[in-house]
Automatic annotation (TrEMBL):
Residues 199-235 are annotated as: Disordered. Residues 199-209 have a biased composition (Basic and acidic residues). This is Fibrillin-3. It comes from Biomphalaria pfeifferi. The chain crosses the membrane at residues 160-184.
């Protein structure tokens, strides 16, 4: 659970250590309460500072029976709130795996966050959402460092490279199509002109055929010589 304190952001968690419950832990002024509170704060500060870069403080809010359940708040700088949740997830998993040393005594430990019982196999994204729910337009993913982070949904993200590619590629593709169409039309016209030229060439090269059925050439004067009759020949 996330809480806001001026200049800081707080994450509420519960730690259960395998130790015998003492009724004096109900009294915040008892030596038992004070010593355990100081020892836990020191140990938690040491453990969490290894992963949380801007850890401000650990507040021990109280103890409850069930072995010993410790309610505590992790305070980080508000400027680091975007990454602190992811870092706290790593720290809590480490405590679950390795336990905690309090005042020289080692204790096995269990962690609960927002009703979620954290184990070594619990999804990091589930822990992160229990600590600090991702915003409505983001989803939890595991980054290259193995940490759970809230990232913008890919469906809503603006794909700048794709937009640039489309802006450049579409005009080029259209230009290519126009050039291709022009080349096809030019080739059609070129082939058609070649066929026309070929037909004209064939017509010009053909030999001419006389239309009147006579062979030989006509007289240059254009007049026809008729045979003379026998009577004119005798005279």
């Amino acid at each position: 659970m996330l809480c806001i304190i001026t200049g800081t952001v707080g994450f509420d968690s519960q730690l259960r250590i395998n130790a015998t419950w003492e009724y004096t832990l109900n009294d915040t002024n008892s030596i038992t309460y004070i010593e355990l509170s100081k020892g836990l704060k020191k140990s938690l500060m040491e453990l969490l500072s290894r992963t949380i870069s801007q850890l401000i403080d650990i507040i021990i809010n109280g103890f409850r029976e069930g072995s010993i359940i410790v309610d505590f708040t992790t305070l980080v700088a508000s400027s680091a709130s975007a990454t602190a949740g992811s870092q706290l997830v790593e720290a809590l998993i480490s405590i679950v795996k390795n336990g905690i040393n309090v005042n020289g005594t080692y204790y096995g430990a269990n962690v609960t966050v927002g009703g979620l019982n954290v184990t070594a196999n619990t999804s990091k994204c589930d822990i992160l959402n229990a600590l600090q729910a991702c915003k409505s337009n983001t989803t939890c993913t595991i980054n290259s460092d193995g940490q759970a982070t809230c990232n913008e949904d890919s469906s809503d993200a603006v794909n700048v490279p794709l937009i640039i590619g489309l802006c450049v590629g579409m005009p080029l593709a259209l230009l290519c199509i126009v050039v291709l169409v022009l080349l096809i039309e030019y080739r059609k016209k070129y082939l058609e002109q070649r066929r026309i030229n070929a037909r004209e060439s064939d017509y010009t090269d053909r030999p001419s055929t006389p239309k009147d059925g006579f062979s030989g050439s006509r007289p240059s004067s254009g007049k026809h010589l008729l045979p003379m009759s026998k009577e004119k020949l005798l005279n």
